[in-house]
Amino acid sequence: MIEFYLDGRSGVSPYLQIVQQVRHALRLGQLHEGDQLPTVKDVVSVLAINPNTVLKAYRDLEREGLVQARPGIGTFVTRSLTGSSHAALGPLRQDLRRWLAKARRAGLDDESIEALFRSTSRAMAEEEIA
């Protein structure tokens, strides 16, 4: 089961962080069709946030067709976002770990690494379009 966390320094609203974490877990194959998300009560107790925040996140995920609420039972994953085979993720993850270690040795912090990744990814996408 997924365990949510909040990053107060991210500038991203708590409900959107929950939505993003579910999407990431679906993309990485950590959540599968039929898996149950934590109950609103459990998320509220762990994260110390308003229940409406969790409900808003779960409603957004339901509107996207990713989960379905079953009254009195819970919220369940209805589809995956995995775009590639899980077998391909292992070697890519190892390559990424090596690259991250190299970036940290070069003195980059997490924000710098993320900025470099995003700008490079955007540049590559623009090159593919051109």
UniProtKB/TrEMBL annotation:
CDD domains: WHTH_GntR. The keyword S-adenosyl-L-methionine does not apply. SMART domains: HTH_GNTR. GO terms for molecular function: DNA binding; DNA-binding transcription factor activity. Keywords: DNA-binding, Transcription, Transcription regulation. The keyword Acetylation does not apply. It comes from the Bacteria. Residues 12-80 form the HTH gntR-type domain. This is GntR family transcriptional regulator. It comes from Motilibacter rhizosphaerae. The lineage of its organism: Bacteria, Bacillati, Actinomycetota, Actinomycetes, Motilibacterales.
